[in-house]
Amino acid sequence: MATAAQNTTPRKLRVATTSLAGCFGCHMSLLDIDERIIDLAKLVEFDRSPINDIKHCGPCDIGIIEGAVCNAENVHVLHEFRANCKILIACGACAVNGGLPAQRNHLDVAEILKHVYGDLDGKPSAPNDPELPLLLDKVRPLNEVVRIDYFIPGCPPSGDTIWKYVTDLISGNNPRLSFELLRYD
Amino acid sequence: MTIERYITIDGEIVHFGAGQTILQAALAAGVFIPHLCFHPDFGPHASCKLCTVTVDGRNGSACATPAMPGQEVHSDTPELNARRRVLLQMLFVEGNHFCPGCAKSGNCKLQALGYELEMFNAHYAHFYPNRGLDASHPDILLDRNRCIMCELCVRASRDVDGKSVFALAGRGRASHLVINSPSGKLGETEFALSDKAAHVCPVGAIMPKRVGYSVPIGERQFDHDSLRQKVKKHTEWRSSGEERDGATKELVNGSVAVNSVKEG
Predict the structure, then answer these.
(1) 3-state SS of B220-249?
(2) What are the boundaries of each domain within chain A?
(3) What is the model's pTM?
């Protein structure tokens, strides 16, 4: 009997999350689902995520990514998620259209670094450690770098919005947001 | 024998007056057809194409197609809404439309149509153009990054204010808003806050200064009512004869339009 019961219980979905060029506001919003996280935990288990500090992503069902793509490390992480996640969700304004980080897109990167860090004794003082990821010339939303399956706009999307979208998705429905839940700001 | 002046829009009977277009008749009857470049005070521009409807099997702009007895119009169909969404997405990638940092958010018709048509992302690759700001005017900020080139300001300044402050220059991708002054700056013109052209911009391109967040996010026009609900409510107010504040109701030629809703 125990075996039969086990067979009828669907396995938990594996979910990974990360923040690229983001502010973690979307992760805060994810935590705003409050006590519903207990219901969620019955359905999903977390793989790589800032919530559990797992550093790399294994095979997953859903990847939720906040933040835009602004440097080489972001590109690597995004590729890791795309390679491992069956479904990728771009979560929040930055992931969807570049958002706040993309406000530098009309400026030259070298000029920005010079302006922000200044020159010391005539020498450029922008950080140049090989461990630091290089900046991209333009900040891009996720879907301009890899294929993205779903998009949740909002800065950040509310906890209710994320809850509705993700529960629609894991119950096998096409996710839809009502007028109250769909926000770009 | 008299011919009854009515058309059907998505099966609903809509009466029209002499000389009305399909869009004017629809709005007067509280039937919502998405639109951006239309304003009841001005003639049809038919450039945004969001009001495209199917009239007796052919597609046409509802703002520029005269209503004729017996027309069978289809508007709220999945096919047309999908095409409208694509038009919106192209408008979004062509400019720099970042709602979280825009003082127009919640009062913006482009954004409200995005909600209405369930646009989740812009789909296409962003242009991220560098169109620049013009803050030279003491009372009005011009942010070309948000301009969708509907020419409402051009029409208002030319036809109502008689100043011809604005014009569109360039073609195709190079189209841009220009200012009629020697330096090309808004501050050098006679443009004033009381001008019609200062209050017709459907997006956040022409913004009065110092009032950006006097109405907080969450209490703005489209924060609680969708565009569709707004149009319906306006018609109800009109038909009930109830007096409303002129700032929230404006009726011209017997029709209400999205762009006639002013900021409070």
Answers:
(1) CHHHHCCHHHHHHHHHHHHHHCCCCCCCCC
(2) 9-103+134-170
(3) 0.90
A and B: number of Cβ contacts within 8 A: 68
CATH number for domain B6-81+221-260, candidates 3.10.20, 3.40.1130, 3.40.1350, 2.60.40: 3.10.20
Closest residue, chain A, to B107 (C-alpha): A185
Give the model confidence (pLDDT) of A24-58 as tens digits. Answer: 999 999 999 999 999 999 999 999 999 999 999 99
* A contacts of B216 (beta carbons < 8 Å): none
Please tell me the class of the A9-103+134-170 domain. Answer: alpha beta
Segment A157-171, tens digit of pLDDT: 999 999 999 999 999
Assess A138–B contact: CB distance below 8 Å, yes or no. Answer: yes
Omega before residue A156 within 30° of 0, cis: yes
**Structure ipTM:** 0.90
> Nearest-CA distance from A165 to chain B in Å?
12
How many angstroms separate the Cα of B212 from the Cα of each of A147, B139, B209, B222, B238? Answer: 37, 12, 7, 16, 30
Residue in chain A lying closest to B98 (CA): A99
Token readout for B70 is 């017996």
Residue A51: φ, ψ to 5°: -70, -35
Core vs surface per residue A71-82: b (16+ CB within 10 A) or e: beebbebbebbb
